[in-house]
Amino acid sequence: MYPERFSNLPAYAFPRLRALLDAHAPGGEVVHMTIGEPKHAFPEWITEEIAANAAGFGQYPVNEGMPALLEAAADWLERRYGVQADPETRLMALNGTREGLYNAMMALCPETKRGRQPAVLVPNPFYQVYMVAALSVAAEPVFLNATAETGYLPDFASVPPEVLDRVTVAYLCSPSNPHGAVASREYWAQVIGLAEKHDFRIFADECYSEIYRDGPPPGVLEVAEEMGADPERIVAFHSLSKRSNVPGLRSGFVAAGPESIRRVRQLRNYAGAPLPMPLQHAAARLWADEVHVVENRRLYARKYARADEIMAGVPGYRPPEAGFFLWLPVADGEAAALRLWRETGVRVLPGAYLAQEAGGVNPGKGFVRVAMVAPEDEMAHGLSRLRGCLYG
C-alpha cells in the first residue's frame, strides 16, 4: 500500500534534532544556530510593493512567472554572469528553489538510461531534497563524500566510468551547504566535460552565490557558455531567500535550455504551485536591486571576521569561503550538539543529519553545522559559548 522507495528515508534533520534535544533543558539563554534562515533585514520597500499589488491575490498567478519577473531575472543573470537568457524560453519562476530542485527531476530524469536504472550523483553531505528527488523517480542516489581531501566538493572524476554512463543528473551546490566551499571555473569545466562525455545533466544549486568573502563565485552558466556546452546540459537554480533575506517569500528561478524549460513548465501546469502575483512583483523588484545585496554582504563580512577571531586556534577550524555556515570538527556531532545544548543553551545541528553513509563512513559524523544568521552580537555570544564548551 506504500511505496518501497521511501521506506528507508531517515527522519528529516530538524525533527531529528528536536528529538535529540527537546527532552533536555537548555543550560543557558537559548541561541538558535541550526537552520539557515537569514535574519538580516530585507528592504522596507518590499512590504510597500506587496501592498501596492495586493489586488493580485484575487487572481491565479502566472504559471511560469510574469514577464516582468522573468525579465528581471534575465537582467540579473547578464549583470552577474555575463550570460544572456531569453526570459520567454530559458527561465521559469519558482516557489522556492526546493520546489525546482525536486520537480526538475520529475520533469527531466528519464526512467532508464541505456536500458539500466538511472543513477543520480549527490554530494555528501547534501541538501536533503536531492536524495528524495532521486528516489522519487526510482533512480539510484550515488553519494560522493565531500571532505577535506576533496576540497569539500565532490570528486566527480573519481566515479567509475560504468557508473557515469548510468548517470542522468549530478547535483552540485556552490557555494556549498554546509561547507561554504566554492567551485572554481576549472572545477565547473571538469564537471561539464564529464556531463558532455557521459551524457548527463548538471543541476546546479547556486542559492548561496551572493554571500561570499572575496570575489563573486563563478557560475555554471557562464562556464558552460564559454565552453560552448549544450544548453540543455545545465539546469541552474537561484533564490532570493539568502541573497535578499526573504526566505518566507519563497521565490527563486530556474535557468536551463529551451527544451528543459518547456518540460519543467509543462509539469508545473499540473503539479506546481506558482508564486502569488503580489509576491512576483516583489521578487521582480528584488532581482533588479543590488544595493541591499551589497549591504547584506557587508554584514556577513563582519560575521566572518568575528567568527575567525573567536575560533582562532581551534584545531581543524576552516573559515568558509562563502555562505553563512561554519562546519566545525568535533569527536561526535550528536554528542557535541547535545552537550552544547545542555550546558550552554546554544543549538547547533549534528553534521551526520545532513549526510548518508557512503564508503563505510558518514562524512558528517565528526562535525556540527553552525548557522551564522543571528544578529552579529548574538552570533558572537553563541560562538564564544560554543568554543568554551566544545574546545576549552
Share of helix, binned: 25-40%
Task: Give the count of helical stretches.
Answer: 14
Please give the order of strands in the largest beta sheet: 2-8-7-6-5-3-4
Overall mean pLDDT: 97
H and E string: HEHHEHEHEHEHEHEHEHHHEHEEEH
What's the quaternary structure here? single chain
- CA(first)-CA(last) distance: 52 Å
**Major sheet size, sense and barrel closure:** 7 strands, mixed
SS-derived structural category: alpha/beta
Shape: globular
Number of DSSP strand runs:
12
pLDDT < 50 runs, ≥5 residues: none
In what range is the share of β-strand residues?
Answer: 5-15%
Radius of gyration: 21 Å
Name its key features:
single chain, 392 residues, alpha/beta, three-stranded antiparallel β-sheet, 40% helix, globular
Describe the overall structure.
Helix 3 (67-81) packs parallel to helix 11 (277-288) and helix 4 packs parallel to helix 5 (129-136). The protein has 14 helices and 12 strands. The strands form 3 sheets. Strands 2-8-7-6-5-3-4 form a 7-stranded mixed β-sheet, with helices on both faces. The protein has a 3-stranded antiparallel β-sheet with strand order 9-12-11. Strands 1-10 form a two-stranded parallel ribbon. It has 392 residues and is α/β, with parallel strands linked by helices. The protein has helices at 13-21, 45-52, 67-81, 97-108, 129-136, 161-164, 185-198, 220-227, 240-243, 258-271, 277-288, 291-311, 333-344, 376-390; strands at residues 31-32, 91-94, 119-124, 140-145, 167-173, 201-205, 234-239, 252-256, 325-329, 346-347, 349-350, 367-371. The model has no long low-confidence stretch (mean pLDDT 97). The radius of gyration is 21 Å and the shape is globular.
